[in-house]
Design a protein that fits this description.
With 562 residues, the protein is an alpha+beta fold. The protein contains 14 helices and 21 strands. 30% of the residues lie in helices and 25% in strands. A hairpin with a 5-residue loop joins strand 20 and strand 21. Helix 7 runs parallel beside helix 8, helix 10 packs across helix 11 and helix 13 packs antiparallel against helix 14.
Length: 562
């Protein structure tokens, strides 16, 4: 093969027409240059600047020598079978010697490993160069390869076979560095995901009156983990706190801030404060943790005796409630600013407020983060509306509803944002199931005669609920002590409430005084002060809280025998 015929067809070159001069010529075959003779000086003693020397013509450069000196592997192939015309020294060093004239499919297995054979067919047909990046061969090296069409026919033989020039660049170091970077990013992301999952509740608390499920899905592999979280907190006396939140930002820092906020919410919830007061405390704490981190949060409390959710929101998306008939309601107001932006030190800034939304039997509430409904191509209100439509038709257990909402909103493993969803169902009980849930209450009117009426009422109700004798006696004793404490330290109106579920007996006394009782150790000579201690000793748990109307509620629970 005469490689001089290839040179004019290589990419980026053009054949230059030979200069025709009657007095001088450039011998292209020897790559020589001729300097014109100096012209004679004119009569006025002026002289002309000598003509600059011309370089060698491009077609005169020895192609075989040039290709052989290239440090990158180069191969020339011709014909539809891509028969080997030439491989340079770098190609032989990388892949071994290759026999001239042999088809590439038989003699060049490295091209198959790089998936180049179909690409060379395409280049040969289309006459267009193609490049593949960072392909790895079995030996472990990575190459970026360019396949360029080359016409081998000379001007006097335009029908000669076409060929392909294969030029490979070794990018092993770059590929290994990129892989190390990807592995490091995977490790960092796995660390953040592990941290976040460890900070989320491992097992959701399941209240007696509600059925709850939650789903957390981190963003796709290219997205750093975020700070989404959810929680379910049993407050006692059948009440349950529901929490959903989102720390803005990505990575381990966001997950760490999320963990601190979640822990703080659980601590504040144990104080049994109204939702807006919990968020007010959390707002101050968020600013102290990291002023640059902003978080949103919705905190709601369910009381089975009230039939609704009392909630407060710090810049979070609205809670949705779907009734049994498929009607969806949105908890619009009140909504305050995100956590960390409402002032510091408990002074100034926004004052959060609480609102209510009905949660009747048979209804389903959904709390969620913005990753579920926010899309870059549409307004977030459209996403919330889409969630409402999906919730309206979602039936089944809470976990089934979770999964259906995720699918309906198009959230996949490649989703670019974290998603947290908390589904809460208030089941409508009928038949034998309904027999396990009862409420009874008595208004405590009059003076000291209210105590014997309360004992008689508790005795009759507990007996009608067919509790064991021992549990009836303990329940009557607890009710008597709580009523006596309220009569002595509280103010009207007073009320005794008894509630049974499938798992516990709850006794609660409310009055108009907002001073919370505390357990203290009574001295032997004291005639009072033992009521709360007696209740704390015989009951599974007890507690107290201030009520919205300005009074208080003191309660205790007894676990029912299995």
């Amino acid at each position: 093969m005469n490689f001089t015929r290839w040179s004019a067809r290589l990419p980026g070159t053009q054949r230059r027409a030979a200069a025709r001069d009657d007095h001088s010529s450039v011998p292209a075959a020897r790559a020589e240059s001729v300097r014109p003779k100096a012209a004679a000086a004119p009569p006025d003693d002026t002289s002309e600047t000598p003509a600059p020397a011309t370089g060698p013509a491009l077609e005169a450069l020895p192609v075989r020598e040039l290709l052989g000196l290239l440090p990158a592997p180069v191969a020339l192939l011709h014909g539809p079978e891509h028969r080997i015309t030439y491989v340079n020294a770098a190609y032989t060093s990388a892949f071994g010697p290759r026999p001239s004239g042999a088809p590439a499919a038989e003699a060049m297995p490295e091209l198959a490993e790089l998936s180049l054979l179909p690409l060379m067919d395409q280049v040969l047909r289309s006459g267009t160069p193609r490049t593949v990046k960072s392909r790895k061969v079995l030996a472990g090296s990575s190459y970026t390869v360019t396949c360029t069409p080359v016409a081998t026919g000379a001007p006097e033989d335009p029908d000669g076979e076409a060929g392909v020039l294969v030029y490979a660049t070794d990018v092993t170091d770059h590929a290994e560095a990129a892989e190390r970077l990807r592995a490091s990013e995977r490790r960092h992301r796995e660390t953040a995901v592990t941290l976040q999952r460890s900070l989320l509740p491992q097992d959701l608390e399941q209240p007696d009156d509600l059925r709850i499920a939650a789903t957390y899905q981190p963003g796709g592999t290219d997205a750093a983990v975020g700070g989404d979280w959810y929680d379910v907190i049993t407050l006692g006396a059948g009440r349950t706190a529901l929490v959903i939140g989102d720390v803005m930002g990505r990575g381990v820092r966001a997950a760490a801030v999320m963990g601190q906020l979640r822990t703080a919410v659980r601590a504040y919830a144990r104080l049994d404060l109204p939702p807006h007061e919990v968020l007010q405390l959390l707002d101050v704490l968020a600013a102290e943790i990291d002023a640059s981190q902003i978080a949103t949060c919705a905190y709601a409390v369910h009381d089975p005796n009230e039939g609704h959710l009392v909630y407060a929101s710090a810049g979070h998306l609205p809670i949705l409630v779907c009734n049994e008939d498929g009607t969806v309601h949105r908890a619009e107001d009140p909504t305050g600013p995100p956590l960390g932006t409402g002032g510091t030190g408990g002074t100034g800034g926004w004052v959060h407020t609480s609102g209510t939304i009905p949660l009747p039997p048979g209804s389903t509430a959904v709390l969620y983060t913005d990753g579920l409904v926010e899309r870059r191509s549409e307004d977030i209100d459209e996403g919330v509306a889409a969630l409402e439509r999906a919730l309206s038709g979602a039936k089944g257990t809470p976990q089934v509803v979770c999964d259906r909402l995720i699918r309906s909103l198009g959230v996949t493993a490649e989703h670019d944002d974290d998603v947290a969803v908390l589904v809460v169902q208030h089941p409508a009980r009928t038949g034998t199931s309904a027999e396990l849930f009862h409420n009874a209450s008595l208004d405590l009117l009059g003076g000291i005669e209210a105590a014997p009426r309360a004992r008689a009422f508790a005795t009759g109700v507990l007996a009608s609920w067919r509790f064991p004798v021992e549990l009836c006696d303990l329940g009557v004793l607890a009710a008597s002590e709580l009523v006596a404490n309220s009569l002595q330290h509280g103010t009207p109106p007073m009320r005794l409430g008894l509630r049974r579920t499938d798992r516990r007996l709850i006794i609660e006394v409310t009055d108009g005084d907002d001073h919370l009782p505390r357990r203290r150790r009574a001295e032997p000579a004291d005639e009072a002060g033992r009521g709360i201690s007696i209740v704390a000793t015989i009951a599974s748990s007890w507690g107290s809280r201030r009520t919205p109307g300005g009074g208080k509620a003191v309660w205790c629970e007894f676990a029912l025998p299995a």
